[in-house]
Protein: 3-hydroxy-5-phosphonooxypentane-2,4-dione thiolase
Amino acid sequence: MTWGFKNRLNTILPDGRAVMLAIDHGYFLGPIHGLEQPLETVK
Structure:
């Protein structure tokens, strides 16, 4: 990674951690097992 990319990423994610969920899949397929309650799943 270049310095500029790392710097911009650090601005968005200061602690370097992220959870990304494709929330539109449930609209077509229904709830995905384990993601009905995302906060509980992450814990």
